[in-house]
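Q: Structure tokens for this one, please.
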Amino acid sequence: MGAPDGDLSAPSSDASQPLDAGDAGDAGDAGDAGDVGDAGDAGDAGDASDASDSAARWDIILPDVTRGEDASAPWMDRPDVVVPPPPDVVTLDRPDVVVPPAPDVVTVDRPDVVTIDRPDVVTIDRPDVVTVDRPDVVTVDRPDVVTVDRPDVVTVDRPDVVTVMDSGATGNDPVAYGGTFAARTGNFTATLRINGNPRSVRLSVPTSAGSSPPLLLLFHGTNGDGSQIMTESNAAALASAEGVIVAAPSSRWLGVGDFDHATEETYWETQRNPNPDSNEDVLLVRAILVEAQRVYNVDPSRVYVMGHSNGAFFAVFVATLLRDRVAAFSENSGGLVTCARTTSCRFRGAGTTCSTLATRSGWCNCAGPELPIPLATSGRRVPGLLTHGTNDPLVSVYYTCTLQARMLALGMPVQTTLFDGEGHAVPPNWAQLVWPFFRPLRLSP
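A: Here is the predicted structure, written as tokens:
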């Protein structure tokens, strides 16, 4: 376990800037977690978490709206149109247009795509999805009744369930998603729907969270999940002690390999799709940011990401693509790959600094494209804390040293801690190790 890489420390910045990186503190002794999975792939295996908790939904009962098949209703004009007594009269101009006098009650005979162009016009286009061109919260208590309470956007998953989508609570982000986070404290699992696919997110919401808490996102390694990395990092204890909201999403099974995987596995999608508007894993991160602010009022200037192994590569990927929304990042056992594949360099050595390791026999010298993504050469420079075991057999410490060198060349604040002789493992109390670096950093107004 080594001291911080003092000879390659972060460049000093102007005191008026809020991005100066603090010391990461004493890393402590890191235990060897043992070999995980096939040494040919750069990831760590874990058991899938039990998503026993479900996201909260809102149900609103509408006693004054009658279903079409209720023949006892004296105001029934036809089976598929309900015209309740004033002031909640619903009239039908043609089969696909409903024009209510008020924007808060809409009755339909099946779930349909509904587009609100103005508060009093609802247009039905096709089944299964409800969209709103301005924010409105819509809930359903039975298949034929939709009630608009306040601005938001929604998606219908099945005829009697509507899940909330947010139109941009954080930074006016227009990301679309289904599902919600429960407005509660404790450790539980939520499900968000991205592109219609259910995605699991393990949450730790402490009672100590203030009115505008910071948000920490944790990314697991190959074949792991959010529950596993939450436990390994001891993040729930950090959440309770520091009042931090912690979210640990789970990646998905991808049917092809990439620079970090020889074949299909469960891992984070990176270099194959660097488009933040179509990469489902990045869309999931964006949805988490929006939903966490909507439900927990997290501070959008204090969003941090950290990851281990394949999750480390994803943390670099997210911090690069969302550099105007991530205050700082940390990676462990990852780095920046300039070889053809992660397995192309197998360097292992002894030392506590990258400059020392570079003098050891077997040091690699790759000069290819930057993977998982080229670091941004313009715009905001996101501070980073880099950690790695020098004896890592799966992902060489060479890649973290490559990341350090590239960040320094670009003027990005960086702090590096190398664990002399340690392997491919999550450091003990990893969240507590990283938090002193994150704590003082925030986005500028």
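A few notes: Residues 1-170 have pLDDT under 50 and may be disordered. The first strand starts at residue 91 and ends at 94.
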